[in-house]
């Protein structure tokens, strides 16, 4: 496996020219941002990335009821805690550093590129912090937030049960009132970092049904159940009635312990209600939506790592003759290899841009009282999660193709990226569920107004492109304009279908999300090209020239996919729904 070097130039460019980091005031002063990014890159490349291969080969282990993580994980995680990295964007009053969430997203990208299996632990802890910030009681915030913000304690999300996957209304985990606490009984599966040796305590966020609660989703409550009980002063006491039954054997992310958890084998695990009874899903969705954006970052991050390895291999592998007849030549000189690499590069840059745009919109909406920006961030969250994670799998697959047989051999480490990436389209609601969320909730809640505003923003970029000279900007505009028209037409069809033919709308939901992501990526690439042109007016610059060239490639090779997606959305439902069940 090749080493990882954080793409700092790309990240800085996206933060400043797409994410709008400079709009966040003194907390994001350029010298502070640069210092944070430089140190994060050093830690990712020198401390975290070297643990990735051991994590894949060794995996997490459960022996005698004790879970151990692979070689190097404890030291790498300790470095994250000691450096205060977990609390980068959290409030100062809870032990955080109060920096913009957008900057934290960029740092998360580095962690996940370096070692996705390890970075899953702080991802869920950070999501648990967001949950408590929004729904925790004053006592819960006082006792648990300081340790969760630092990462000294970690958090988990306990939703899935053997009979209840995405249908959370089918949950059977029971909660019985016992004074100010509840006793939890039942089993949860697929619990990422449900148990481990990285921290002294684990704070489980658990969905359960209180005895006598209404059936279905409206009867679900949320509970905080620590692995080790805590007194009012924050001191650790005895173990709670929570244990890990087994660890799942998975396709990838072997270093991440995915646990089957048993609650209440000894009479009942102590849990404390978070929020109100029977409103657990509402609270849990704060955690889930935070995690969904972070999972989109995973797709971007693994794609970047796979691309770096493929690029390094292509530059050094001698095979055949170049088109000019010289040989043996590095395969980087072969046109099809160049096409694959630039496709990977363009898709990664588009995904990074769209992710940072979404993160900045959420940050602005939540912390600067800009409701339209918040709606945009919420609209883009399922798009980022699904489109970026699908992209991660496809780029990791293309990276194997560039490396040929050597990529398929486990010893090179290239296959690990492909195996690791495959979980991300499944995590936190499959990508089909993300598409349903985009259509039913995000379009349905306002009749498509937020989507129309986004399409209007794309139209404004069209106008800026029209004012630029040269074939590059003409090609970018042509591709973006056509794709925008496809998205606009598909959006209006979706809004109309939702009023009377929801089945047809849902049959086209996944193609619609892909179309939205493709156009959103084109929007980000066009903005990148315009920013690069403004910056390079003082003279030629290879990095900035590449920004414009990559945007043109995206417009000519990727945006045309919109023309194929549009008919699948607006006229493909009948054929998709025509087959009787017995034919399958």
Overall tally of domains = 3
Kindly report the spatial arrangement of strands forming the biggest sheet: 4-5-12-7-6
Roughly how many Å is the radius of gyration?
24 Å
Inertia-based shape: globular
Largest sheet: 5 strands, mixed, barrel
Question: What does the average pLDDT come to?
Answer: 95
What percentage of amino acids are in beta strands? 5-15%
Give the strand tally.
12
Q: What structural class results from the helix and strand content?
A: alpha+beta
Which runs of at least 5 residues are low in confidence (pLDDT < 50)? none
Helix content: 55-70%
- What is the first-to-last residue Cα distance? 41 Å
How would you concisely characterize the structure shown here?
The chain contains 19 helices and 12 strands.
Structure description:
The mean pLDDT is 95. Helix 2 (30-48) packs parallel to helix 5, helix 8 crosses helix 10 (371-408) and helix 14 (471-500) packs across helix 17 (542-557). Strands 4-5-12-7-6 form a 5-stranded mixed barrel. The chain has 3 domains: 8-150, Orthogonal Bundle (Butyryl-Coa Dehydrogenase, subunit A, domain 1); 153-280, Butyryl-CoA Dehydrogenase, subunit A, domain 2, CATH 2.40.110; 433-578. The protein is α+β, with helices and mostly antiparallel strands. The chain contains 19 helices and 12 strands.
